Amino acid sequence: MADVFLYDTTLRDGNQDRKISLSLGDKLQAAKLLDSFGFDYIEGGWPNPSNPIDVEFFKHIGEMHLTHAKVTAFGSTRRPNILPEDDPLLKALVASQAPVKTIFGKSWDLHVTDVIRTTLEENLDMIESSVRYLKENSESVIYDAEHFFDGYKANPQYALDTLKSAELGGADFIVLCDTNGGTMPWELAQIIQAVKEKVSTPLGIHAHNDSGMAVANSLIAVQNGITMVQGVLNGYGERCGNANLTTICADLVLKLKKDPFCAKNLQDLRKVSLAYDQIVNIPSNVNAPYVGDAAFAHKGGAHIDGVMKVSRSFEHVDPQLVGNKRVFVASDQAGGSLVVEKVKELLHVDVDKKDPKIRELLLLIKKRENDGWHFDSAEASFEMLVYRTLGHFTTPFSLENYRLIEDRTMQGVSVSQATVKLHINDEISLQVAEGDGPVNALDAALRKALTPYFPYMKNVRLDDFKVRVLGSNVGSDAHVRVWSTFGDETDTWHVAGVSSNIIEASWFALIDGLTYKIYKEQKNGH
Ligand SMILES: CC(=O)SCCNC(=O)CCNC(=O)[C@H](O)C(C)(C)COP(=O)(O)OP(=O)(O)OC[C@H]1O[C@@H](n2cnc3c(N)ncnc32)[C@H](O)[C@@H]1OP(=O)(O)O
Ligand SMILES: CC(=O)C(=O)O
C-alpha cells in the first residue's frame, strides 16, 4: 500500500505557466503519459463554459481507460449568497462526471474581505456547503485551502476554522496551499504541526516556487506526516512554477524512502520528463535534478577522475535509478582521465593516461576547447580528432585549395560559386559547383569531388547549420563557431568548426561532417 499519494496538476496549474497553452490533444496525450508513469491523481482542468478545452477533456478522458490514475476536475467554492446547486461553476464541475472533484476555498481573511468581498461567516459556509454538495455528487472531494500558510500567519484561528468547515462538509483530503510560494520550510513545519492538532482529515501539500522552496516545502510536509503531494511535471506553473513533481518523486523514493505507487516506474522518470517537454514543445532544462542532460555530466578533470575511481565520490545516486546516464564532458577543464575514458569508449582499447600520445591528445582537446569548439555538442568532431591524433584513421583525401566567387546580378539575384581541388587516392579532383550561398556551394563542390570515390556520400544530409560569434568581440573580425548536424539513413552526428573566418569555420565543419561518414563506412567494412 502506497504511503504517499502523488497528485499531478500538470494539466491545470501547469497550464497556467506563461510558456504553455495545452490543446485538447496535448492534454489527452499528457494524461496518458502521466497515468502510465503511475501518478495517483491527474487534475484535468477547470471545466466551465469559459474553458471549452477543459469541458471537452472531461468528455474524452473516460474513453481513454487510464490504468491507475483518478481524474479530478478542479473548481472553486460557490459564489457568495447562493446555494451550491444554483452555482453555475459547481454545476459544471458535476457535469464533468469526473470521479474526484477538487475545489479551492479562501483561508486568508484578507482574501475573504478584500478579494471575494464577503463576510468571514459566509466564506465558512461557502466552503462547507460546496464540499458537501460535491461530495453528494462524486466519489471523493479534495479541498485545496488556498493561501493557507499566509492565512494562518495573519489569523491562525480563522484559517483553522476554514479547514474545520471543509472537514464538516466531508472532504476526503485537505490540501494546505502555499499559493504565493513565500513560506519557508521551518515555518511550514510548525504550521502543519498546529493543523494536525485540530484536523483529523488526511492532509496534502500544494507548494509554489516563488522563493525557490517548493520542493523543499513538499518534502518537509511529508516528513511532518502529510500524505498527498500536489505538483507539476518539470515544475512548470504560473510565475516561478509549481513544486516540481519530477524532482519530488525521485526525492521521495530515494531520499525519504517512501513508497508511492509510481516508485516501481522510477527508471522511466527521465523519459516521462522529456516526453512532456516534447508535448509542450519547450527545450528541456539540461540542469534539471535527476533527469536533465547535465544531471550526471562531469566536466572538471578532478571530478571525472574521482567518478572513474568510485562513482559515488561525485554522484549522489546511481543515474540509472531515474533512467539517466553518466556523461563525461570533453572540455578545457578535462584531465588525462577523461581522454583515457573516451578513448576506451571509442576504440575499445586500454590506454595509459601517461602515454605521450594521450598527453598530446589532451593538449589538443584543451586548445580547441579554449578556442571555442565545445566538443560536448560536437561529438563527431571530437571523435575525428581522437581517431586522427592517435593514428587510428587518416582522412583519405587532402585539400589543395578552395576558391569562392560571389556573383550578384543587376536584377538582385546572387549566386555563389565554389571551386574545390582535392587529392584523393593519388589523383586530383577539381570540381566546381554553384549554391544559394557560399557554404551551400562549397558543400556541393566537395560532394561532387568525393562522391565518385565514396558513392555513399550521396546519402549524407546536412540537417542543421548554425553560426555563433564567440567571446565578447562581436565585430566583423570576431571568432565564430559553426555547428552543424549531418545525417544518413541510420544516424545523426554533430560537428563544429572554429575560425575568425566564417568560411573557414564552415569548411572545418563540412570536412568533419563528411569525413565522419567515410569513417563510419570504413568501420563497417565498406
Ligand atoms: C490558486 C489558483 O491557481 S486558483 C485557479 C486559477 N485559475 C483560473 O482562474 C483559470 C480558470 N479561470 C476561469 O476560467 C475564470 O476565471 C472563471 C470562469 C473561473 C471565472 O471567470 P469570471 O466569472 O469572469 O471571474 P474572474 O475570473 O474575472 O474573477 C474571479 C471571480 O471568482 C471569485 N472567486 C475567486 N476565488 C473564489 C472562491 N474560492 N470561491 C468563490 N469565488 C471565488 C472572485 O471573487 C471573482 O468574482 P467576481 O467576478 O464576482 O469579482
Ligand atoms: C489551489 C492552488 O492552485 C493554489 O492555491 O495555488
Automatic annotation (TrEMBL):
PANTHER family: (R)-CITRAMALATE SYNTHASE, ALPHA-IPM SYNTHASE/HOMOCITRATE SYNTHASE. This is Citramalate synthase. Pathway: Amino-acid biosynthesis; L-isoleucine biosynthesis; 2-oxobutanoate from pyruvate: step 1/3. GO terms for molecular function: (R)-citramalate synthase activity; 2-isopropylmalate synthase activity. InterPro entries: 2-isopropylmalate_synth_dimer, AIPM/Hcit_synth_CS, Aldolase_TIM, Citramal_synthase, LeuA/HCS_post-cat, LeuA_allosteric_dom_sf, PYR_CT. The keyword Transmembrane helix does not apply. SMART domains: LeuA_dimer. Keywords: Amino-acid biosynthesis, Branched-chain amino acid biosynthesis, Isoleucine biosynthesis, Transferase. It is an enzyme of class 2 (transferase). One of its GO terms (biological process) is L-leucine biosynthetic process. It comes from the Bacteria. Belongs to the alpha-IPM synthase/homocitrate synthase family. It catalyses: pyruvate + acetyl-CoA + H2O = (3R)-citramalate + CoA + H(+). Its EC number is 2.3.3.21. The keyword Amino-acid biosynthesis applies. Residues 4-273 form the Pyruvate carboxyltransferase domain.
